[in-house]
Amino acid sequence: MKQFVTAFGAEPEGVWAAPGRVNLIGEHTDYNDGFVLPFALPHRTVVGASRLDSPRWTVWSEQADEQIDFDLSERVTGWGAYVAGVVWVLREAGFDVPGAQMAITSDVPLGAGLSSSAALESAVLTALVDLGGLDLPVDERPALAQKAENEYAGMPCGIMDQSASIRCRAGHALFLDCRSLDVEHIPFDVATDGLAVLVIDTRAPHRHVTGEYAKRRETCEEAARVLGVPALRDATLSSVSSLPDEVMRRRARHVVTEDQRVLDTVELLRSGRIREIGPLMTASHASMRDDFEITVPEVDTAVEAALSAGAYGARMTGGGFGGCVLALVDADAAPTVADAVVAAYRAKGFTPPESFSAIPSGGATRL
Ligand code: ADP
Ligand code: MG
C-alpha cells in the first residue's frame, strides 16, 4: 500500500477496507426501534497496518494530510478521535489491542452523508481485530464501532452506519431491525437487472441539522409516551391519527408509514421486483417533505428532476436538511437523469450537484 510505504518506509503487515453506505429506505426509523435498509457503496476506506511492540498508535491519513501519535493516556480529538475511539472501545471490552502503525486513505466523500466516519471506524476496527488475533465475532463489531463514535468521538448516531459498513454483502441490501439488531441480507442486484442507483450529492449547505434532529427525536419519543407504547415502532396508523397535536401526528405518521414502506420494499426485493420499489422511495420522500419536514429546496429539486427524467423512484437519504438523494434508474439512463438534475439546479442557481452510480457492495474485509 503506497500510502503506508510513504508514511512508514515499508509495506504493512496487512491491508483492510470498509465501505461507506447509503440507506435505500427507512429514515428516522432507527431511534424509533424500527427498520432500515442500507447498502454498502463501492467507495471505501482503506487501512494498512503493522504491529508495534508497545501500546502506541501512529496514524497517517491521506485525507487529513496529517500524522497523529497517541498512547493510552491521551484523549485524542479531531479526526483521530474516530481511530483512538476504536482502540478505546476495544480495551473497554477487555481486549488486548496491539499497538500499531496505520496509514489511511479513502474514496468515501467526507461529510456528505455517506458515512465516511463509520467506514473509518469499521476499517480500523477490522484491522486491529485481525492484527491482534482478537476473538470478536463479526455480529458484535457494529455496536463497538458505534460506541466509539458515540462515546469517544462524541457524535450521536444510530447503529445503522456501522452495521452496514461491517455486515453488508455485495448485491444485497441489509435489512436491519433496530430493536432486535437482527439482520437479513436482501437481494438487491441492480446491475444484473439493468438498473442503477444514482447517488446525487445535493451539496446543500447543512442547516440546523443537530438541533432539528434532536427536536424530531423528542417529538417521536413524546408521541410514543402519549400512545403508551415503548416506541413508535409499536404504534398503528389509526392510533397515531388520534394524537391530539397536529405536528406530533404528522411526525408519528411519517415513522409508522416509513416502517411499513421498509417492510414492503423488502417483500418486493425478496421476489426480485426491483423496479416496483420506485413508488415506495418516492412516497418516502413525500413523507419526509410533508410530514417529517426534513427536506430542503435543493433536495426536493433533485428528486423532482430525477422523476421527471424517468427515474422509477427518488428520495432523500440520510438525516435530512441536505445530504444525498437516491434515484432508481435504468443503468443506461443514469447520465440523462444526472444531467436533468444539473439543469434543474442551474435554473434555480444552486451549487452544482455531483452524482455517481452505486453498486451494492460488500462490507469490511481484509484485502
Ligand atoms: P460522514 O460520516 O457523513 O462522512 P461525519 O461528519 O460523520 O460525516 O464524518 C466525517 C469526519 O470523519 C471527517 O470530518 C473526519 O473527521 C473523519 N474522517 C472520515 N474519513 C476520514 C479519513 N479518511 N481520514 C481522516 N478523517 C476521516
Ligand atoms: Mg458519519
From TrEMBL:
It is an enzyme of class 2 (transferase). Mg(2+) binds at S117, E149. Residues 266-346 form the GHMP kinase C-terminal domain. The active site is at D161. PROSITE patterns: GALACTOKINASE, GHMP_KINASES_ATP. Substrate binds at E27, H28, T29, D30, Y213. Signal peptide: none annotated. Its EC number is 2.7.1.6. InterPro entries: Galactokinase, Galactokinase_bac, Galactokinase_CS, GalKase_N, GHMP_kinase_C_dom, GHMP_kinase_C_sf, GHMP_kinase_N_dom, GHMP_knse_ATP-bd_CS. It catalyses: alpha-D-galactose + ATP = alpha-D-galactose 1-phosphate + ADP + H(+). Keywords: ATP-binding, Carbohydrate metabolism, Cytoplasm, Galactose metabolism, Kinase, Magnesium, Metal-binding, Nucleotide-binding, Transferase. It is found in: Cytoplasm. Residues 2-51 form the Galactokinase N-terminal domain. Residues 82-166 form the GHMP kinase N-terminal domain. The record marks R21 as: Transition state stabilizer. Pathway: Carbohydrate metabolism; galactose metabolism. Catalyzes the transfer of the gamma-phosphate of ATP to D-galactose to form alpha-D-galactose-1-phosphate (Gal-1-P). Belongs to the GHMP kinase family. GalK subfamily. PANTHER family: GALACTOKINASE-RELATED, MEVALONATE KINASE/GALACTOKINASE. This is Galactokinase. It comes from Phytohabitans aurantiacus. The lineage of its organism: Bacteria, Bacillati, Actinomycetota, Actinomycetes, Micromonosporales.
